Amino acid sequence: MIETRGLTKKYGDMYAIRDIDLNLEEGDLFGFIGPNGAGKTTTMRIIATLLNPTSGEAYVCGNSIYTKPKEIRRLVGYMPDFFGVYDDMKVIEYLEFFAAAYRIKGEARRKRCNEMLEIVDLDFKRDAYANTLSRGQTQRLGLARVLLHDPQVLLLDEPLSGLDPRARIEMRELLRRLGKTGKTIIVSSHILPELADVCNKIGIIDRGVMTVNSAVNDIMREMRKQVVLNVMVAGDASQAARDLEQHDDVDSLELVDQQLIVTLVEGCEDYSHIPTVLIESGHGLTLFQEEPIDLEKAFMTLTKGTGANF
Fold it and tell me: What is the average pLDDT score of the chain?
């Protein structure tokens, strides 16, 4: 559905993006992550045929950005980070205006607009003026607009930016629902935890260079080469620590406020036998869980904690 090969954009001697390779299939929900200015918007604008690359190639549904830009625009719905709304237009009028631009006519136009309002949970604001909406509601209206012509590809630039916590949760849930429709979606963010549980693939870009590009599960395994377990027992935690620390699969062990922090040896992913070891040693388990990955720390490591040069 989306393929880029060596996509590069330069401004003088400065690289906005350099040698970006992407290969996304139908139904992929790709989280495009990077610090502000890393090259996310540049890449998405090139795929949307709104910006010409310096070199490289990009295809959308088999169409080249050089030879078939009009065909690509019919297939793509692009939502920028910030977009304007008209002061004197109601929400339903705003959608009908753009539906008319997509040449959706008559009763089909009104039906399509109503459907989009329901999809983005904005039907209750249909008669409100567009410029009175909150930031989160405006983002949902923008999403409804790009869905009007039923595009096969969605390019969503920072749709979670500037939203309050509740609006972020609602927008992530909406992205999950869209991800189940079979559309190919690229959604950008500068915060990894925002998208890690929504997308099936993640790309991390830093200073115009793609440093990570893989399935989410593969990235999570790469971020944590060693499983860390949080364990608590009823009774003598110090004795439980002694019983575990000699086990072959335990690399290191800490006792912090009666909680065992157990780091397994690299490559050990099946730890189902650890509870058995403790129970057979006479310890009752009150807590046993894998420690979640610190995604923010991992993101800073993967991007070297630096901003882009463009």
Answer: 89
Distance CA 179, CA 260 (A): 39
Cβ atoms within 10 Å of 20's Cβ, excluding its own: 25
For the domain made up of 2-221, give the CATH fold.
Answer: Rossmann fold (3.40.50)
Amino acid 159 reads P
CATH class of 225-292: alpha beta
Rg of the chain taking only CA atoms, in angstroms: 24
Beta carbons of 64 and 229 less than 8 angstroms apart:
no
Mean pLDDT of 152-157: 96
In this structure, how many other beta carbons lie within 10 angstroms of the beta carbon of residue 257?
Answer: 6
Q: Band of the pLDDT at 302, cuts 50, 70, 90?
A: low
State residue 87's pLDDT score. Answer: 81
* SS3 call for 62: coil
Residue 53 in 3-state DSSP?
coil
Residues 39-50, mean pLDDT to the nearest whole number? 96
User: b/e string for 182-193 if b means 16 or more Cβ within 10 A?
Assistant: ebbbbbbbbbbe
Domain ranges across the chain: 2-221, 225-292
Burial class (CB within 10 angstroms; exposed 0-12, middle 13-18, buried 19+) of 77: buried
CA distance 44 to 60: 12
